[in-house]
Amino acid sequence: xxxxxxxxxxxxxxxxxxxxxxxxxxxxxxxxxxxxxxxxxxxxxxxxxxxxxxxxxxxxxxxxxxxxxxxxxxxxxxxxxxxxxxxxxxxxxxxxxxxxxxxxxxxxxxxxxxxxxxxxxxxxxxxxxxxxxxxxxxxxxxxxxxxxxxxxxxxxxxxxxxxxxxxxxxxxxxxxxxxxxxxxxxxxxxxxxxxxxxxxxxxxxxxxxxxxxxxxxxxxxxxxxxxxxxxxxxxxxxxxxxxxxxxxxxxxxxxxxxxxxxxxxxxxxxxxxxxxxxxxxxxxxxxxxxxxxxxxxxxxxxxxxxxxxxxxxxxxxxxxxxxxxxxxxxxxxxxxxxx
Amino acid sequence: xxxxxxxxxxxxxxxxxxxxxxxxxxxxxxxxxxxxxxxxxxxxxxxxxxxxxxxxxxxxxxxxxxxxxxxxxxxxxxxxxxxxxxxxxxxxxxxxxxxxxxxxxxxxxxxxxxxxxxxxxxxxxxxxxxxxxxxxxxxxxxxxxxxxxxxxxxxxxxxxxxxxxxxxxxxxxxxxxxxxxxxxxxxxxxxxxxxxxxxxxxxxxxxxxxxxxxxxxxxxxxxxxxxxxxxxxxxxxxxxxxxxxxxxxxxxxxxxxxxxxxxxxxxxxxxxxxxxxxxxxxxxxxxxxxxxxxxxxxxxxxxxxxxxxxxxxxxxxxxxxxxxxxxxxxxxxxxxxxx
Amino acid sequence: xxxxxxxxxxxxxxxxxxxxxxxxxxxxxxxxxxxxxxxxxxxxxxxxxxxxxxxxxxxxxxxxxxxxxxxxxxxxxxxxxxxxxxxxxxxxxxxxxxxxxxxxxxxxxxxxxxxxxxxxxxxxxxxxxxxxxxxxxxxxxxxxxxxxxxxxxxxxxxxxxxxxxxxxxxxxxxxxxxxxxxxxxxxxxxxxxxxxxxxxxxxxxxxxxxxxxxxxxxxxxxxxxxxxxxxxxxxxxxxxxxxxxxxxxxxxxxxxxxxxxxxxxxxxxxxxxxxxxxxxxxxxxxxxxxxxxxxxxxxxxxxxxxxxxxxxxxxxxxxxxxxxxxxxxxxxxxxxxxx
Amino acid sequence: xxxxxxxxxxxxxxxxxxxxxxxxxxxxxxxxxxxxxxxxxxxxxxxxxxxxxxxxxxxxxxxxxxxxxxxxxxxxxxxxxxxxxxxxxxxxxxxxxxxxxxxxxxxxxxxxxxxxxxxxxxxxxxxxxxxxxxxxxxxxxxxxxxxxxxxxxxxxxxxxxxxxxxxxxxxxxxxxxxxxxxxxxxxxxxxxxxxxxxxxxxxxxxxxxxxxxxxxxxxxxxxxxxxxxxxxxxxxxxxxxxxxxxxxxxxxxxxxxxxxxxxxxxxxxxxxxxxxxxxxxxxxxxxxxxxxxxxxxxxxxxxxxxxxxxxxxxxxxxxxxxxxxxxxxxxxxxxxxxx
Lengths: 339, 339, 339, 339
Description:
Four copies of one chain form a homotetramer. By secondary structure, chain A is α/β, with parallel strands linked by helices. Chain A has one domain (3-337): TIM Barrel (Alpha-Beta Barrel), CATH 3.20.20.70. Chain A contains twelve helices and twelve strands. Chain A has helices at 3-13, 42-52, 90-93, 100-113, 126-138, 152-165, 180-184, 194-201, 216-224, 246-257, 272-280, 290-322; strands spanning 54-56, 71-73, 76-78, 82-84, 117-120, 143-147, 170-173, 208-213, 229-232, 262-265, 285-288, 335-337. Chain A is globular, with a radius of gyration of 19 Å.
């Protein structure tokens, strides 16, 4: 299978997504359930568009033996600085082909086979969280469960389950705090003050990742709460319309917390070139959401591997063409931010 | 009824407006009579577009009990900082379904039922001003009549009628001063110097709102004239083409008069997110025009209520997602203005 | 006849121009012969687009008796600061309905009847220059002949003819210096150094206008040469592709020569609002080209009058809505230049 | 034959290129093999678009005898500062009409006949490099062979062949270093450190041109390596997606190395106006790629001559219209860079 075939398969298999030539949030704007951004879709669209304004400084006058795309996180070594973002309720949002267990199996296995890791999701029903946990357990803990900002006791309970699954780390998408729909179904979510987050994070020895940070203040509070890392994320534009893009808030967050905690980022990242760009701006690694779903619907476990290696190859080439031998060599001098 | 049904009804019931997915002034440009902006429609279009350049800084790491969207104005408490803008001559501009009395009844009642207030309009014929006044009187004064800049005696007479109706406040759309058409029908309008405005405003104890301020100088003169508040407004682009948008003149006006008088704003505000944005830039409250007309034609009194609560819910969510517990917490730090 | 009918007539009568809703140079790009700008048409297009970025600061809180749109030039008083730009070879560029004599008759008479003045053109054949001169003579000298940058003797001869016609002033479109086509037909044109221009200008007592100035240096040289005024013009984008727009070079030219000579401007000016804008930036008056041709083909002499008064009325309204009682009151504070 | 006919012929003869009215990289984005830019095509597209943002300052008030467009390079005099860029594998990228020998014959002869010079290409097979060399030899050395960054021995061997052909100069497209495809076919390419480049360049007395420099650092290293000149180039967007445009990195490179080595540039240059612009920004001469291929497929040798003289005439006119008598007079004051 090549990537073109994968896309054609995905086009047939996904009911809600057009698998556009450029996955930029325009055709699907406002489609929730579905794959779009909320409201005008501007959060998703701007994520994609702003990444286009960062350009690569090409320079091939240097000596090189080998390019190394690997990264160490959670005490483990990964082949590329890439994670599959948590996606849940796939029957609702993508179509009836897979349930969450099947979907996550493709993600977790495909990621593991290609040297990276997938995040899994959470929901009102227990199985939405627990089915993917089983997949993680069946794959030597090769996954990061992501918990919603429920009441504290519920969170602590789910963290314990994550520990039991052998997961490498655990995450919370704190930006799901405004999903009134969850409260209506009897499982309210809410914003969390630093003190409560401290209590939650200190309850486990697992590295804890706070997903959904979009301001310097938010990043500082995450650090104060003891997080291992943050994901600079606007949830793909699905929890609040008209946020800035993630890449335009990244530099100010980097300036404040770089080196003190890990900085992940998602939103509009499509290629190895995009990965290169955000690392140049100070991110440690990326999460990628929708294109991984396309990979699953277009090729299952094999599709996930194919897409992961495609990303890796593009990152490799971009490093080669700009004189970066390791991820640490990718710095601000290697990109040009267009005005 | 849900909002989608409301829009479908409106599409059937309005003869001049396409009820576009984004109410941005493009499809209707130049249509007067009708719902468009004058000439190239740029005043209307820019109002909408410039609001898209303000983004919300999402932060959900804080402690919260309850979000309060209420505001106190004219010594009364309102559920949301929202007013329906004055719209008149609806048969001419929207279609034959309603006359001005019926239209205003839906506005005034719908607003009152949902905890906010509507403005009413004025025109060459006496009934254009007086019919809506009856509606206000029948609804415990729950409305703000808006008088055109006629000759002084006519204005003073109409202010007395407003007082008799029990209206909460009275307004003048001073930017109607260039409507030569009114003069041709025997009722000339004209710009008003500060001295004349002082005389007019001091003739009543009602809070007096000057609508149609687009410059710092204009705001200072309104303050000098004794106005309770101003509406930063370009009349939806209907009195002069090629003005700036209201949101781009707002900050300089806020810097000059904030705290000395109330600052309302209209122009392109469509959602609770937009309300949040202009409050962050220093406005006290907003007026919304065309979408309220859509609400009337799509659902009458019930439509007005539905749309008002939709706005309120969006404002509530935006406050929740950015850590604002009351309107006073919505400040410049909570938005990002894109370059 | 109203303006809508005029446009419909013009659409039928002009063979080369689509009479677009916005006359912005896009549909006709590259069409020479025809009405377009040269090459990509960018000179024409940018003229129009950049004017859209200047906005009017509306303010109606002031005292006003009457708005006066008149201007004094060449010792005469004109109703509006408006001139019809020179257009020649109309059979070639517009269609077979009119010859240059008939075309200019409509322009010169229509302008005179509405209180303004038209420029006339020049070409390889003697009659292209001399036929319009007859029209000027038949209308009490109410016109400004425009001479191409031929060899000096030819220019001096044509200036004498202009004097004999009783013309108010005489002009030269110095930016025609690169039209190689003219040289091929045996009448070469060329750039002119200051010394030669001094000799030419001092040969006559008529006010001399240099048309086609796009730089501060050019304006200084025109002043040194003794010109009565300049026209900031890129020849509607028809002599060189990819020039700046006229309105974006206007401010720096104004800063250098304002008050020392008259500053006219053309390029993309379509309405009284556009006239207001360039006067606010320091121009004394405007030339308008293509829309006057549309007026001729849509309504002859009457069309020219109708369009002139339309411009005048728009200028009047804009002055009324911004507190400018005379042209001198239109200054930089009355516009906002968008970034 | 005129240029319009040439374009029509080309449209018929090229299988992969639509010969668009504006050759801007949009219709062909991503088409490799073919004529497009890699991936999203943004490298090609931005080259073209950014050149549109530079405008010509028109001034025709000066004395002029003759405009001289000639330039001296490699100790020879050329009629225009124009070179045909190296294009190879034309059967694959353009269609079956010509093989590389035939294609290069049209380029080399057409260029020679019109007073300029063409570059030739290289590839995995020996004949891809050597067939064009024969053409150069048959045309008195009137060509510049371009070698890929192979292993050093292979490069040195090919330089010797270039010398034997009598070529005026020799070049290397160092930005081909990332073409993994070449390695798969048994001929790996790679980035080259300064030391290796010094050894390569010092092996020959021919002027050596390094093509594919996009950063100040790269330019400094090329200078250190002893290059006669560089080509500021992103390879038409075909080796790495999402690079800056060449014209936006040109000024900083000029500031660093101007006068110390020759600065060529390619990317989106289509007309004599574009040539004027980049010379104003500090380039010495330009390479033009795709439009020369269109000229070959549209008119063979004659087409190449026709296009070259078209460029020359446009450059001549632009110099005439801006007061530049020689290429040295074309400086920054003669252009305006739009913000």
